[in-house]
Amino acid sequence: MLFVRVLGPIAVEVDGRPVDLGGPVPRRFLAALSLTVGTPVSDGVLTELVWGEDRPRQAAATLRVLASRLRSALGPSARECLQRSAFGYALTVHPEWIDHGRFADMITDGVRVLAAGDAGSAARLFENALVLWRGDPWPELDQAPDLPAERARLTELRATAVEELQAARLACGETAMAVADLSEAVSAAPFRERRWELLALGLYRSGRQAQALAEIRRVRELLVEELGVDPGPALRTLEQRMLDHDPGLLLVESPRPRGMRTETSPRTPQRPIGRVLSSFVGRDRELSLLSVLLAERRMVSLVGPAGVGKTRLAVEYCAGGADSPDRWIVRLGDVHHGDGVVTAIATALGLVQITGDPVDLVRRALTLRPGQLVLDNCEHLIEPVAEVTMMLLAASPDLRILATSRQPLGIDGEQVLVVEPLPVFDAAGGDGAAVQLLIERVRAGRPGWQPTASDRETGRAICTSLDGLPLAIELAAARERAFGLHGIAAHLRDRLDVLGTTPRGSLSRHASLEAAIGWSVEHLTPADRAMLLRLWPFEGGFTWQGAEAVRPVGTDAGVLATLASLLDRSVIAADVTSGGTRYRLLETIRRYCRDTDPDPPATRAAHAAWARGFVADQAALLTGHRAGAAYRSLAAELPNIRAGIDYDLAHHPVHALRSAAALQFAWPVLGVLVDGRDVIRTALDTAADAGTEDRARGLLALSIVSFHAGDAREALGRAEAAMELLADPEPDRDLWLHALMFRALALTALGDRASTRSAIDRLIAEVDRLPTADWIRGCAQFGQGIALLLEGNLADAIGWLASARELSAECGHLWCQGMADVVLACSLLTPAADADTAASALTAIDRALRAFGEQSNISDALGAVYIAAYALMALSSPESAVGLRAAAIQHSERIGADPRRYTQFAHPVVLDRMERLLPAGEQRAAEQLGRQMSWTAMVALVRDSVEGISAD
Q1: What's the predicted TM-score (pTM) here?
Q2: Does residue 347 or residue 385 have the better pLDDT?
Q3: Where are the alpha helices (DSSP H) in 573-665?
Q4: What angle separates helix 794-811 from helix 814-828, to the nearest 10 degrees?
Q5: How distant is the alpha carbon of residue 498 from its chain centre?
Q6: From CA 653, how far away is CA 386, in angstroms rounded?
Q7: 250 DSSP 8-state letter
Q8: Residue 950 has pLDDT above 90, yes or no
Q9: Which own/partner contact pairs does 18-21 have at CB distance under 8 Å and 24+ positions apart?
Q10: In principle, which of 138, 231, 283, 565 could form an S-S bond with 235, CB 3.0–4.6 Å?
Q11: Is the predicted pLDDT of residue 191 greater than 80, yes or no?
Q12: Cis peptide before 731 (omega within 30 of 0)
């Protein structure tokens, strides 16, 4: 049976099995059909709903492809539910096969049953209906003309179910549960009087008559103040009955306890681990042994050569147990540095939008919800994976870890299971699992095919030539329709001439797999092959936009169709779990493409051109409301950006300088200060023939990055050098304004009052001379506040800083918004600061951390945490203050930032007091504990302190 869920992100189950619908486009396609179940939707309407204004050129053909793939995903038992007629496409399912129909029916039945006096049955109906609700209906669609009304209807039904469920519980005598849920319900929808009525009744029946009357008074005040109306007759009548002490209010019509519920609201389920659709051949023994080993041991490693099927074995094991503990697969193939291991684990666990220390988040998540963690493709990250594995196993005693690698991790307690190639012959001398796999894959392309004795003999020869490696066998079988088994064997003999003397298990063994991959790739369609050979420069994966930017000139095929074709042929992989689809090449295929590419320089150049265009597009967004998303996009593509800049340094230094300079705000925000500073310096040295404006931009980028690194003198020198090059505000006034801003910022760090005042006055005069962008105007106001602060004019300084914060918040300039609060906090921390003043400073720091968090700005966030330590000192929390300061210094050193760069705005007596806050021994102990704090712990300490102040 097919069951469609639209109350939340669209999901489909066939016979209880979740169906992988693919990326956002097929999801919107199915969501559009589910709007009018049983009624055809025309191609034009579907195109509008699925793509909006970005419709493909051949929309009808693309719709056919989408329908075909969805039918394949639904399988033979449900594919006929997606039908095509002359009027369009239709999803033909019974009303009870879609959740919103069942949802509405259960609520209607619940209201009817409750009115009839059967509160227990009504409560079960409402509970079961609410279980179906996973979020707003049809979130994939935003352009359907009738959708707002249907969403409103279903949302109102849900609100009714929430209320009438509590009414049923009160009728059943479950008063405590009803009161708890109603307290939350009135906060969620404070203008729904039915909820207040039931809450007051529940409180009254709990013996809390005074609180019940207080709640009625509270809702009356709310309605009068917000809407200008009095409560309805039901609330007024209930209040009067309470004042009259009506004994009828204490009566419960159905006091008997309810029986077992038919369905409860479970914990949010783990995302299903889907099996590959093709059959799994020859690994029954390994699956059984793996189950036994993981039951007995906490750490098991699957070890074997490339292409032997370690990953497939791990996936089949994870997908096999319906009643098994939670299992997560972590793909490490695209992680090229040890620092990315924990982030990859966090992503697999579903810890998205990470703003804290990922190590602490992962450790806590696996401690609270232990299960089985699969670390896939560890061989290039042995040391960092081993360290993370030991840490996680120590933190979570119930955790099990399964690793796949070409070599063991080498940690204590590791159980190694060697995954051998599939045998060509069985124990009796017949066809082994390798030949069975070959036959299975050939039959997938030729239904009903029966191999002859000659075919079997040739198949054994093929499998022997390929050493029984499953990936190589599957790639060979994919070409049987074109060449037949005898032709395949002939090609492999040619390839084996190269590999004939390679010893089994050596690193050169990978070359035999490359030969098989190469043979397979060569027989792709010309358009697919040409596209594939252009993808190898991408580091860490790519989006379809990136692939489109590097596709060969003159290619007519659409990039989405080409990527889908390559995905079908297993030469690329796709990850759709992160919200947007990201593609990647297997490393062996990537190496083959690099070696086979007929024009590698042109491919590298195309990749570099895409990278520089991507940088330019995202950099333009870094000072506005879309800055948060732009910073996240830059972080995702940072390996590709660095590869592009490296190429440009060697071939187009001026382009490298432009890209490095455009990232002037991103280098510190993304926590790559040292790398960014080195790149800018190298680009300036290499691009000797760059024009005046390009060199000025590079110098200014080096100025702001040096400032964040704590080198104010270099920051000043680079800004002044840029101004000398520019000479006057024309012709690029924005660049001149950058120079004035960065010079003034550097002078503030040096504490030169007179020079700072002169620089700020010059900046403000230029800002006022002509219309200027709000974010720059906000920076000028920020500079004015700093200058006044250095001059001792605290009252005026606070006013300018507040104005800078408000203007920056309005225009989306997160850095200035956060920095205004950091400097404001510094200004408040004087020797005479009392607890209230320190609390105000800490509140300002908390606001700054939220702005920097939205920006993903770790560098300035650490500076804010450093200042927070002094606020804690003023609040008489010496151990916390010393520890927090040590933690900020420790984390800043890791990324090359200087958290002390804003302390010139704090009073020197306050700064000096921190050094002698505790006796020497206690001071060292507190600092040692602080250096062990995670980023999450630092932020939590600040926010807990703020909340504690608010509570007091």
Answers
A1: 0.50
A2: 385
A3: 587-596, 600-619, 627-636, 638-651, 653-662
A4: 160
A5: 44
A6: 40
A7: G
A8: no
A9: 18/272, 18/274, 19/73, 19/74, 19/75, 20/73, 20/274, 21/70, 21/73
A10: 231
A11: yes
A12: yes
